[in-house]
Amino acid sequence: MALYTNKVTLKGYLGKDAESFKTKQQKTVTVLSLATRSGYKKGDNWVGRTEWHRIVVFGKSAESAKALRKGDHVEAQGELCSSEFDCITDGVTVKRRNWEIHAGNVRKVTPPASSATTSTGGDPIPGENAA
């Protein structure tokens, strides 16, 4: 049994087209903005919440992922990673932490037939505050 596990699987809709670039070593990196939804029932109504995730894809998977477009239903698997950076506001430097998924596997999937009436209260909303 492993002492540590860092595995993430997310499935949702892209909020904007994939953004791809090359590193100095000419390796492809593709960045995706993926929306997932969750919610709960309050009285007779569903209260929905959209969470935006930054997905970073490297290598051969990045080459395939760069063809993904806004509104595509996507599944991404990888690791949760963080990086620290300085944020300067009004002359004060504060350390901040950024979280993203480094995905080794990304694929376009067919949404379930009932996606328009999900238990989280509504249609997928690609583009709403895309990260």
Automatic annotation (TrEMBL):
Biased composition (Low complexity): 110-120
Disordered: annotated segments: 106-131
An example Gene Ontology biological process: DNA replication
The keyword DNA-binding is annotated on this UniProt entry: yes
CDD domains given in the database record: SSB_OBF
Any one GO molecular function term: single-stranded DNA binding
Keywords for this protein: DNA-binding
Transmembrane segments: none
SUPFAM superfamilies: Nucleic acid-binding proteins
GO CC list: nucleoid
Superkingdom in the source lineage: Bacteria
Gene3D superfamilies the UniProt entry points to: Nucleic acid-binding proteins (2.40.50.140)
NCBIfam families named in the record: ssb
Protein name from the UniProt record: Single-stranded DNA-binding protein
Species the sequence originates in: Edaphobacter acidisoli
